Amino acid sequence: MHTPLRADALDMSASAGQNPFDLDDNKAYARWKQGKIAGYPAQARQLVVPVRQPGRLSNGEKARLLDRCGRANMAVYQLDPGRSYGKPEIAALAAQLGLRRLDCNLLADRDCITTLRHETAKAKRGYIPYSNRRINWHTDGYYNAPENRILGMLLHCEQPADSGGENVLLDHEMAYIMLRDHNPDFVRLLMQPDAMSIPANTEPGARVRGERSGPVFAVTPAGHLHMRYTARTHSIRWKENTREAARALAALLNGESPWQLKLRLGKGQGLVCNNILHTRTEFDQHAEQSRRLLYRARFLDRIEEAPK
Question: Measured between alpha carbons, how far is 307 from 73 in angstroms, rounded to an integer?
């Protein structure tokens, strides 16, 4: 059983000249891992921060959101469930946390924020987020080019489904720890620049996106760990020497782990994160007025770090 949030485990960054993601620096890794585990939340409810006005965070609200993101790369805000919120308010909240550069992906709305609801036409074209089906482990934008990495993400719930639609959340740094402790050579293989490739996505009569290749684990120029992953078994190609590592990672993600946090977003709640791993269970909705409605924003920014 891991230790709940501790105030003395806040500084989990690497010291100058030391890199916990260097597979040859086991001392730096051990120190970082100890702090990471000590500060990691034991339950999803520890991620939740009540927020009164999304467009004007108080100093305390912002500090608490950044604190949780510093510990687990994610936080959950709770707005007033008695009212509705528009996308400009959600974007304003994100901007106060450092998330400003929106990724205008293929199916995003004109404002680059995606409205997620069950849409039969899009679901039939293979876009699972627009269906009510289960979604397996993934990070957002895994098909983006390396120079267009999705570093941050916000998922806001305007209306939950009648039942289902639960997320399981896992900080990608914890996934890194799990795999490195299992076999560091697997991490090395998944850091290859062509470890995982996504074939070109085409629509009738038009080429929508070319093939994308990249690593699963990468370290950004600023020294942060980034993960690009999908558990899909079709529309994906693993490099020949990475397949055993990919199977091991999938087994770890699908096994029992104290680091996985289960959460069903309620009305007015939103997840803000540094593009962590997440899943979604299937869901049901029985009436038009109870149609599940979420807003999703993807960013080329990370959430800013809390002052030390």
Answer: 15
Residue closest to 75 by CA, chosen among 135, 165, 156, 149? 156
Report yes or no: 304 and 155 within 8 Å, Cβ to Cβ: no
List % helix, strand, coil for the chain (3-state, nearest 5). Answer: 30, 25, 45
Identify the pLDDT of residue 286: 58
pLDDT digits (tens, 9 = 90+) for 60-88: 999 999 999 999 999 999 999 999 999 99
**Amino acid residing at 241:** N
Answer yes or no: is 194 within a domain: no
Domain around 117: 7-169+261-299
Task: Look at residue 90 and give its three-state secondary structure.
Answer: helix
Half-sphere exposure of 152 (CA within 13 A, CB side): 22
State which amino acid sits at residue 157: C
Give 163-216 pLDDT, tens digit per residue.
666 999 999 999 999 999 999 999 999 999 999 999 887 655 445 677 899 999
Give the CA distances from residue 137 to residues 47, 55, 171, 229, 279, in Å, rounded to whole numbers and listed in that order. 20, 31, 12, 8, 5
Give the CATH number, domain containing residue 156: 3.60.130.10
**Helix count (H) and strand count (E) of the chain?**
7, 19
Burial tier of 180 (Cβ tally within 10 Å: 0-12, 13-18, 19+) = buried
Q: Is beta strand 163-164 parallel, antiparallel or unpaired with respect to 167-170?
A: unpaired
- Count of domains in the chain? 1
Gap between the Cα atoms of 75 and 77, Å rounded = 7
Residue 48 lies in a domain: yes
Handedness of CA 76, 78, 79, 85 (dihedral sign): positive
Q: Say which residues have a Cβ less than 8 Å from residue 199's Cβ, sequence separation at least 6.
A: 211, 235, 236, 237
